[in-house]
Amino acid sequence: MAESVIGKRIPKVDSREKVTGQAMYAGDYRMPGMYYGKVVRCWEYASAKVKKLDFTEALKMPGVVKILGPDDVTKKPYNTTVMKLLVPEIFGEVFGEIADLNIFNKIVKHQGDAICGVIARTEEAAERAADKIKVTYEPLPVLMTCEESKAEGAKKNGYLFTPLKPGNKAFDLPASFFPNQRYGWNDKDGKTAMELFDKCDYVIEDTYYVPKQKQCQMENHSYVAHYDERGRLNIWTSTQMAKPVQVLIAELFELPLTRVRLVQTIVGGGFGVRLGMIGEPHCCAMAMAVPGHPVRMEFLREEDWVASETRYPGHIWFKCGFKKDGSPIALDSMYMARKGGYYTHGSGPPFCFAAFIHGMYKWQAMGCQTEGYFTNEVPTGAYRGYGNPQLAFSGEQMITRMCKELGLDELEWRKKWHKGIGDETWLKGVTFASDGLNDCLDVAAKESGWYEKKKKYAKQTGVKRRGLGVSVMQHTSGAFPMLLEHSVCTAKLNEDCTVELMQQISDLGTGGHTAITQMAAETLGFPMEDIHLRSGDSDMCGFDIGAHASRTVYCAGPATIEACESVKKQLLERAAQLLEANVKDLQMKDKIISVKGNPQKSISAIKIAKEGVYNYIDAATGKTIGIPGQIQGYSSFFAKHCSPPFGACISEVEVDTETGEIKVLKLVNAHDIGKAIHPPSVEGQLEGGAQQGLGFVLTEEYAYDKMGRVLNNDFTDYKMLGPSDMPDAKIILIESAPDPIGPMGAKSCGESALMGPIGSVANAIFDAIGIQFKEAPITPEKVLKAIKEQGLQK
Amino acid sequence: MASSRILPEFELLIPQSIKEAVDLLGKLKNKASVMAGGTDVVISCTKGFGSPNVISLAEIPALDYVEYDSKSGLRIGAMATLQQVADNADVQKRYPALWKSAAINGTPQTRNMGTVVGNIMRASPSGDCICAILAIGGKVVLRGSKGKREVSIDDFYIKYRETACKSDELAVEIKIPAPAAGSCNAFARMTRTTLDLSKVNVAVRLDMSGKTVKEARVAIGAVAPTTIRLKKVEALLKGKQITDDVLQKIVETVPTEIKPIDDVRSTAEYRRDVAGIMVKRIILEALGK
Ligand SMILES: Cc1cc2nc3c(=O)[nH]c(=O)nc-3n(C[C@H](O)[C@H](O)[C@H](O)COP(=O)(O)OP(=O)(O)OC[C@H]3O[C@@H](n4cnc5c(N)ncnc54)[C@H](O)[C@@H]3O)c2cc1C
Predict the structure, then answer these.
(1) In a 3-state reduction of DSSP, which class is residue A517?
(2) CATH number attached to the domain at B66-176
(3) Ligand 1 geometric centre to CA of B63 (Å)
(4) Which of A134, A143, A507, B247 is such that its CA lies 20 to 30 A from the CA of B31?
(5) Would you call the peptide bond into A777 cis, given omega within 30 degrees of 0 as the criterion?
(6) Which residue, A389, A387, A388, A416, is CA-closest to A403?
(7) Continuous H helices in A290-387
């Protein structure tokens, strides 16, 4: 066995090409005869009817090839998400899934809606011609809140986003499936949470607001599509869900899968924004209008802001009941989300919000109602965390408030009441198989000086006040059994005994490709350099869901392992035959297969691989030399669990009570990873997640004017934390609870990192000044106003 | 809708001398904009506020100087970058307010391109170097078809994004007097994140005689259509020692001298609430307290 590569701090397999600029992103592709596509969007209105489209002037512009309006492309409505491929059809119907979007639209439902498309010989020509297209609009009512949307939808002849959703209600949980329209679990006597509040000694209620946050991935959405001379539609895209998007494109353009080739290019950040189709339909439609010519299309940053999905904003209501000693009894809640202009993921993130409530603490009964209304905002969809960050902001603040009011230690309470091995996870019937949360909490408490500092700060005076907050979370590793989690891997043994993995793995910068390669190397006992992962081309790869729900290592890794195990098994079987030995007596080390305890009796795996391909007849004996046939391993793997990882985060903040400014001094995030296959990648995920979590809680949110137009569709005014704004962040990987189901003990880490910073910073602010903030982001403006109105509560 | 990808078409004029530049300006008047570092001009173009002619100063020789001597003070040429000014030892030592307003300005990339004179001429109410120089005092040296004139920074800003510079004039340098003995200055700003435009910025110059303030200049930005001096606050300081009482009065007076608005960066209310605190703190910082 070569030295194990698991848990080693080796360079990422793709880091060199990325840091030297050699990596080819979709926007870097240039092809012979290539044209450029430009989507013309509505910038003036968030809600309007297109009265007239006039291409006359634009068509006169030099270099213009074609201009496509709504009637020049397929009018088949679609939904951006891949969700319908991941659940049985009946599920989609229950949840009220609809297809309500067109490639080019005659009704504008949010600023940035696509109206038509220009194809030109150069990018510049396309841009300039787009500027000359005259669109006449008739403004429609602009609905920016759930209340407005509901009221308008209730009117006779009121404005409806889609006739498929009466009253503008985009989603709720159907009572037929969900009693009281709640995702909820009753207590052992069958009582609902609502019925248990009477039995509680202490009941609290609060409403929170969570913001509309943007993923802000570095790479703008870019595509090249080519409807080639064989009648195949080729598309190069940095989607994070390559295979499902290929299927959606095939459906939209009514082509068999053999005629749609999707090549996933290097992904410059995903975070959920590429979870489904974004500009693929537009780029493909343009390519199909000019067969033989590849069409490149790129979103500008300002387009990304208005034409790709965001996090779900909305109001969250909580009511929780406890015994005097803090025992959690009943939790009832409601998430009222603003959906934006289209259905997209529908109930997805709010539903997951409800699910994550259920996976965290040992309530006797709980329930969560989720509802959403269409608004004239940028549609909402997937963003790292998918409902869980919203819970971190609201639920974790509520627990801390309860602990403060009942005089309990909030860290100890969390240790005592969080779910663990044997308890049901976020999904009924699926139980936790591992739990490292108490270790996370202990380590974070120690590293942050929790107990000492809490004591010290209790007595502080002065303008600047410090505080510490804690927050815990549980997430998921893939979405089984709620969603399909299927991954296919083919491991081809080359004639020189190196291995080519063919597997559609999305690496959004997460290190997924590295971890998968490590797992293959480990399984085979080959060095890393002898494994090459080929990923991205649907012509070569089998099925895979892609990157969502923190699934790659956990759900796709086992496919890799199984395929490599099969290669190894075939090598050993051939060796057994050639050595006239038993497979179970053989071992392989440094590509030499030998009989255990008898190293002389051995054969080179390289020889077996070579003779499998170059198989000749021995002229003397008339028999084949070696055993014929190229070895290939294959796995079509379905996940069997979702092994939720836990995490605990402690933040220390300083609040300037004269200006309301908040400084995060230190953040300690301990993550229950089970086993870190590639520790630097896991740490990278946790650091990056902290940056987005801190943005959620401190600075990030869409700003709209009264007309529904985005005021901050750029980095000048949409503020993410930059490198110099980041606190001293200590990331700790807890490996004391390897997961018995996860590959090599691993659980997920892709999304987990956002939650801790959100809850813990909010709680630390509460600790510092005694005021709890119910609206995220918590800006200095809000802090100072609260201090002015309520005074320091500490 | 303009596109951030494609610049609208304009005539790029590259004069080789100040005279040539001034002649062009005289001819084109308000149909031309001057470009120093272009960190503002180019962005304005992509946002649809470009002009049909852009006169670049890039090839006019010897405009990128930062020079100090104890008699004439500091002179900053029209093409001296923010980074050059931030790196200058005299600026660091004698004009910490100016130094800071340049050193925190934008990103390394924009500091290497953008100029201090461009910052002054851009006349943004939140311009950081403007705030520093308005507190320290100085003159903008203009060249036009009628020759050269100097305008005090105190008279330079007329209204929102409008300066005393005429459309046929060019700023060639900024002159800042040498600090007298006992004079100190400081600058601070408040932003949402490190890389940001100011929500509020403040700067002071205090000419001290022992513990007494002989003369004070206090500037504040992003709370009115232009960066302004706080005359009442200056009067409160003049001839006084800086006591808690004086500082408290200042905190209360500042909000009466400003007219902030709500925008994406902050609210009028917040700006009013923190402006006084910021002025108090910057006074203490200038005095090294
Ligand atoms: C990412 C980014 C961050 C920024 N951060 C900050 C910040 O933190 N603080 C801040 O104050 N500003 C900031 N800015 C704004 C701008 O970069 C600075 O104000 C910079 O100093 C402008 O200098 P410039 O040489 O690039 O000006 P230019 O863009 O060349 O010109 C700016 C304006 O001044 C005029 N002008 C320039 N030179 C002359 C001259 N010699 N005579 C007459 N008119 C002239 C131009 O016509 C134009 O109207 C930022 C900009 C960007 C893009």
Answers:
(1) helix
(2) 3.30.465.10
(3) 16
(4) A134
(5) yes
(6) A416
(7) 301-307, 348-360
- Convert the pLDDT of each residue in B27-71 to its tens digit: 998 899 999 999 999 999 888 888 899 999 999 999 999 999 999
Burial class (CB in 10 A: 0-12, 13-18, 19+), A565: middle
Pick the CATH number of A486-638 from 3.30.365.10, 3.40.50.11540, 3.40.50.11750, 3.30.390.50: 3.30.365.10
What amino acid is encoded at A532 in this protein? H
pTM of the predicted protein model? 0.97
Q: Please tell me the predicted confidence (pLDDT) of residue B271.
A: 98
Q: Does 1.10.260.40 match the CATH number of domain A145-197+317-417?
A: no
Under 8 Å between Cβ of A524 and A567: yes
Average pLDDT of chain B, as a whole number:
96
Please list the residues that pair with A372 across neighbouring strands: A171, A337
Contact indicator for B49, B57 with CB cutoff of 8 Å: no
The confidence score (pLDDT) of residue A94 equals 82
State mean pLDDT over B204-233.
Answer: 98
Contact between A674 and A734 (Cβ < 8 Å): no
Residue nearest to atom 31 of ligand 1 (CA): B118
Structure tokens at A14: 């793709």
Q: Which residues, listed in sequence order, are joined to residue A202 by a DSSP beta bridge? A: A322
Taking only Cα atoms into account, the Rg of chain A, rounded to an integer number of angstroms, comes to 28
For the beta carbon of residue A315, count every other beta carbon within 10 angstroms.
18
What residue ranges of chain A have pLDDT lower than 70? Answer: 1-2
Q: What share of chain A is helix, strand, coil (3-state, %, to 5)?
A: 35, 25, 45
Question: For residue B30, what pLDDT is reported?
Answer: 87
Residue pLDDT, tens place only, A212-255: 999 999 999 999 999 999 999 999 999 999 999 999 999 999 99
**Fold of the domain built from segment(s) B183-286:** Enolase-like; domain 1 (3.30.390)
- Mutation pick from B191, B199, B273 vs chain A, by most beta carbons of A within 10 Å, is B273
B33: Cβ below 6 Å to ligand 1? Answer: yes
> What gap in Å lies between CA A39 and CA A103, rounded to an integer?
10
d(CA B37, CA B119) in angstroms, rounded, equals 10
Tokens matching residue B187: 């600058």
Per the listing, tokens 């979590």 go with: A693
Q: Using the beta-carbon criterion (under 8 Å), do B270 and A660 form an inter-chain contact?
A: yes
Query: What letter would DSSP give residue A55?
Result: -
Domain boundaries, chain A: 15-140+218-269+274-307, 145-197+317-417, 486-638
Instruction: Report pLDDT for A90.
Output: 86
CA distance A441 to A647: 8
Domain positions in chain B are: 11-56, 66-176, 183-286
Measured CA to CA, the distance from residue B256 to residue B263 in angstroms comes to 20
pLDDT of residue B70: 95
For a pocket test of ligand 1, which of B29, B34, B143, B193 has the largest count of ligand atoms closer than 8 A to its C-beta? B34
pLDDT of residue B4: 80
Report whether pLDDT(B1) > 70.
no
A49, containing H or E segment: strand A48-54
Alpha-carbon torsion, ordered B142, B147, B152, B153, to 10 deg: -10
- In this predicted structure, what is the pLDDT of residue B7? 85
Q: Of B20, B82, B122, B128, which is best to mutate to test ligand 1, by the most ligand atoms within 8 angstroms of its C-beta?
A: B122
Q: What is the pLDDT of residue A1?
A: 47
